Amino acid sequence: MQVELVRDRIDTQAITDRLKVGEDGAVTVFDGIVRNNTRGRQTLYLDYTAHESMALREMGELADEAIARFGVRDVAMVHRLGRLEIGETSILIAVASAHRGVTFAACRWLIDTLKKQVPIWKQEFFVDGAVWAPGEPFPAELQVVSSHGTP
Questions:
Q1: What is d(CA 19, CA 34) in angstroms, rounded to the nearest whole number?
Q2: Domain for residue 140, yes or no?
């Protein structure tokens, strides 16, 4: 299992090459890349930050859970931090197993769950300003409501 936060470019080929072994029939890869727009706004670059120790712990727990839940042999999850330019990989998830079906399911579950749970934040810089990318909504039962009835 490989779980990392890095500040340098992610080497997809090297990671997938290390993951493969003779008993594998499949390695499924999710290579999340920085696109040049979001909702019609031209993106200049992204900046990722994280609560690093917590993010690494949670990524490790997700990798362990994917192995147990889907029966895959191994998982690699590498997320980039800092400034990323258009076309660069922001996250690489690779899943290896004897059979392809479980690798697809595990890979999809890992990226969807990581985006919801792991404390990694993305700031998007556009030609007309910057915003923090919206995450999952804050659970209603944990919101603090003001005396005016608004969160």
A1: 24
A2: no
Tally of structural domains, the chain:
1
Per-residue pLDDT of the chain (151 residues; tens, 9 = 90+): 999 999 999 999 999 999 999 999 999 999 999 999 988 889 999 999 999 999 999 999 999 999 999 999 999 999 999 999 999 999 999 999 999 999 999 999 999 999 999 999 999 999 888 888 865 444 454 444 444 444 4
Instruction: Answer left, alpha or beta for residue 54, where phi above 0 means left and psi between -120 and 50 means alpha.
Output: alpha
Contact 110, 92 (CB under 8 A): no
Inside any domain, residue 6: yes
Q: Cα 30 to the chain's mean position, in Å?
A: 9
Residue 146 lies in a domain: no
CA neighbours closer than 13 Å in the CB half-sphere of residue 132: 7
